[in-house]
Design a protein that fits this description.
about 130 residues, 5 helices, about 60% helix
Length: about 130
Amino acid sequence: MQDELRKQYEEVLDGWKIDLALGRIRALGFAADDWPDLMQELAIIMLKFRYRPGKSNGATEETALFAVVTRRLLHLLRTRYRREGLLERCAQLCGPDDEPMEYPFHPTSTVTAEDIAAVRERLNEFDN
């Protein structure tokens, strides 16, 4: 997987940037299936990144980019864990015996002339 991604991005990014991104992805424990999507997102971030020595507080370009990549990956992990927690809480609220609600006016349901007539009866003269 790593070799394929290296080949894919070697024309766009410097080798050390590719190694940095892949190393952080691996170190933070992302599944191998997520690597191509993560690498694509990180490549965009790395291409936009501009190192400014005057604003780096003495950090090298590698250190600054390391921080940027790590911060983005941690953000993605936090988002994933929040979503998983939300789904778990929803599953606890809706027990396994709960049946899905039926919506009378669902976008996929067929509207008949009787349905329209029933709605029009409830409208006042101005709305009708």
